[in-house]
Design goal:
Elements lengths: L2 H8 L19 H15 L11 E6 L2 E6 L11 E5 L18 E3 L5 E5 L3 E6 L2 E7 L3 E6 L5 E5 L3 E5 L8 E4 L1 E9 L2 E8 L10 E7 L4 E9 L3 E9 L2 E8 L3 E7 L22 E6 L5 E6 L3 E6 L5 E6 L8 E6 L3 E6 L14 E5 L7 E4 L6 E3 L3
Antiparallel strand pairs: 1-2, 3-4, 3-26, 5-6, 5-27, 6-7, 8-9, 9-10, 10-11, 12-13, 13-14, 14-15, 16-17, 17-18, 19-20, 20-21, 21-22, 23-24, 24-25, 25-26
């Protein structure tokens, strides 16, 4: 048996008795052969693989689609890295443990930044991995132009590491990192106070750190006690804040830096009784699209002005691997997933999921090298 057939057989649906010329091995019972053909046909109907080499076999194991490739002798797709391609057409039952999938080699179409082992910030670009920052206690990271690295450290400090030629990193103490974006033409870091302001009704304030002027500005945007803020993003002069409050539950707010609310835009939460719990809302840099997680399971993209649903992709089984965070640039979305399994400390978490939300048939791609908090590279 060839290496290609060995790999297919190991996935649970061998190719013995079925070749590319439709010749039938008389040693294989007819019913068994028909079952294998139906399995291949069913799986291939829901998966499209582009640029993965010569020879593709698609098999199905329960609710997981396996895509196996015969390596090509010529690299026609450029640099590759190992990812998993999962079917999102049929949700995984939440009563069973997640199935494993077979890794395939495809080109990662979008550079990512991931935190590994709670201390390394790794840039993933094609087949290349670059360690761009190392420090104990790193929990989240962004990589910007000019080599700037923005990280949150041990949940209490935001650290901006400039290129080595510019000196030591800048630390913003007692702040939580929300996002990075562009405000009035400058790259800015969005933060929220870690502690309540006892002089102002115990509110916590949103601040902007300008990476051009190296100045921190406190805005008039704030959150009240009893409110958990999971994300703040920016597009032009519009800020999007999402989270959950003790009184009202999940929320998504459109606000301006003067603390005024934009009530002209349809809200994905208000009045949407059919929607499940919504979290981690992120607006695209051009202000036209909004991406968020629903039920910690689906990635949803809507049009900001009309509220029209544009994309919905199943990215996780919320019981075991709930969606934790989203980064979004208007086309690509990367979702960091949590791990609710009872596993030993130090066990790598589930891989982050990358989705081209503008594709004709958006699908989730598991990035196997990204098992920690992951964001889109801003360079």
């Amino acid at each position: 048996m060839s290496d290609f057939e060995d790999r297919a057989s190991a996935a649970g649906r061998g190719l013995r008795g079925l070749d590319m010329t439709n010749n039938i091995d008389p040693g294989v019972p007819k019913r068994r052969l028909q079952r294998r053909r139906r399995a291949v046909a069913a799986a291939s109907a829901v998966v499209v693989v582009v640029g993965v080499g010569i020879g593709v076999a698609v098999t199905r194991d329960g609710d997981t689609v396996h895509v196996l490739t015969r390596p090509s002798t010529t690299d026609i797709a450029g640099p590759t890295t190992t990812v998993l391609l999962n079917s999102t057409s049929t949700p995984m039952p939440s009563t069973t443990a997640p199935s494993t999938t077979t890794p395939i080699a495809v080109t990662v179409p979008r550079a990512l930044v991931t935190v590994r082992g709670g201390r390394q910030v790794i840039l993933l670009d094609g087949a290349d991995e670059t360690d761009v920052f190392t420090e104990d206690g790193v929990e989240q990271a962004y990589h910007l132009a000019a080599g700037q690295i923005v990280v949150t450290q041990q949940g209490v400090n935001v650290v901006i590491a400039r290129p080595r030629t510019f000196g030591l990193p800048q630390t913003l103490p007692d702040m939580q990192l929300m996002d990075v974006g562009v405000y009035h033409g400058h790259n800015v870091v969005l933060t929220v106070d870690l502690h309540n302001d006892v002089l102002h009704n115990n509110w916590r304030w949103i601040s902007l750190f300008d990476l051009s002027t190296w100045k921190l500005t406190r805005t008039k945007l704030s959150i009240a006690p009893g409110t958990t803020l999971d994300h703040v993003s920016i597009a032009g002069d519009l800020f999007v804040m999402s989270g959950v409050s003790d009184e009202g539950g999940p929320f998504v707010l459109y606000r301006h830096i003067d603390n005024s609310f934009d009530t002209t835009l349809p809200n994905p939460v208000a009045g949407n009784l059919a929607a499940g719990p919504i979290a981690n809302a992120v607006i695209s840099p051009d202000g036209t699209r909004l991406a968020y997680l629903e039920n910690a399971r689906d990635l949803v993209v809507t049009d900001v002005k009309s509220g029209t649903l544009l994309t919905r992709v199943r990215i996780s089984d919320e019981t075991y691997f709930p969606g934790d965070a989203v980064d979004f640039d208007g086309r690509w979305a990367v979702v960091t997933r949590g791990d609710a399994r009872a596993v030993p400390a130090g066990t790598p978490g589930p891989p982050a999921v990358l989705v081209d939300t503008t594709a004709a048939h958006p699908a989730a791609i598991d990035i196997m090298a990204a098992t920690g908090p992951t964001t889109l590279d801003r360079v």
